[in-house]
């Protein structure tokens, strides 16, 4: 079971606002203690869970931002946003596309 300082450390780590040194100073432990905690499976499992939850909570905002980039002035930005959205939706380009095209016969039926 994680202690109070470990939980506070996790909260500060997940926030992404502080360096490990700053976190150590805030919770009054050494940086080496935080390094040791990061080697603990329970600590890292909780960290990964909290980080995933934080990312999930920002996903809708990130998607809205990317959708807005489809209207950007820069053609390159629009293309990158469109490609990323399509990739994430599973529409990846297929290098081995089989396209069967029937030969086209051009007939000159215009009479002078």
Main attributes of the structure:
0% strand; 112 residues; single chain; mainly alpha
Please give the radius of gyration in angstroms: 27 Å
* Secondary-structure element order, N to C: HHHHH
Give the DSSP E fraction (strand runs of 2 or more residues): under 5%
Average pLDDT rating: 90
Shape: elongated
Helix content: 55-70%
What's this entry about, in short?
The chain is mainly α and 112 residues long. The protein has 5 helices and no strands. 63% of the residues lie in helices and 0% in strands.
Describe the structure in your own words.
- The protein has 112 residues and is mainly α.
- Helix content is 63%, strand content 0%.
- The protein contains five helices and no strands.
- It has helices at residues 4-15, 20-27, 31-38, 41-69, 75-88.
- Helix 1 (4-15) packs antiparallel against helix 2 (20-27) and helix 1 (4-15) packs parallel to helix 4 (41-69).
Write the layout of secondary structure elements.
Elements: H1 4-15, H2 20-27, H3 31-38, H4 41-69, H5 75-88
Helix pairs in contact: 1-2, 1-4
């Amino acid at each position: 079971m994680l202690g109070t300082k470990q939980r506070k450390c996790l909260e500060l780590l997940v926030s992404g606002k502080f360096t490990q040194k700053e976190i150590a100073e805030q919770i009054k432990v050494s940086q080496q203690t935080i390094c040791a905690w990061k080697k603990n499976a329970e600590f890292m499992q909780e960290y990964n869970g909290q980080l995933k939850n934080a990312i999930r909570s920002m996903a809708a905002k990130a998607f809205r931002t990317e959708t807005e980039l489809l209207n950007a002035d820069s053609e390159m930005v629009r293309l990158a946003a469109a490609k990323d959205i399509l990739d994430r939706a599973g529409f990846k380009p297929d290098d081995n596309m089989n396209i069967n095209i029937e030969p086209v016969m051009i007939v000159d039926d215009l009479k002078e």
